[in-house]
Amino acid sequence: MNVFGTVNDQTIYLPSTPYQIRLNCKDGGIFVGGQEQEFRRTNPKDKVPVTIIKVAKFFGDLGKTKDALWWQLFFVPSPKVDSKILPSNTVCVAYIKKQSISALNNLATEIISNQKIDPAQGIFEISFAPHAGKDGTYYSVNFEWRERQKDEVPQLKLIQEFWEVCKDDLIDLDGTRDMRNIAMLSPAQLQQLLADSKDEQEQEQKQLAGK
Prior knowledge:
Elements: E1 19-20, E2 22-24, E3 29-31, E4 48-62, E5 65-77, E6 92-97, H1 99-115, E7 123-133, E8 136-146, H2 153-166, E9 179-181, H3 187-210
């Protein structure tokens, strides 16, 4: 039988729908399948090494968060990641916002400047940093970067081969159904989009307050 397909250890697997990861900033951790505790795969301080293979910018709604700027991350778990946490050699997709975007952008900029290489050549380690908010503790996604260790080098060749053939197939229609791709917007256009969104939210709040 061949219903869902198969994959071998010498290829990168891209499911028909990318493997959906929730980087849960409310509870701190990687969640798969929902936000309840039974879907938790990691704890805040756990470091999960991955190769980020694509970053895209979107604006819109995801879950309970409305009219936000998002970065869409496609990545592949390092061979060091237990398959009980994330499936081996499988393309995953997740979304980050606000402080998490700044953290990843700053780190990538430092690597490009100091290391003189594309950060995707190395390994990003994902964990969660706690912050004190008015409603209690919340988390942002923390990113660290390191060079590949010896047993992670062979996977890079697999990823490069996959990228050459499948880079145009890295699409998540489900996650972005209420978003728009803003890659082609100029900084001024993006600023105007954010300003218009803020005005709309303020108008909606005034209307609700008047009822």
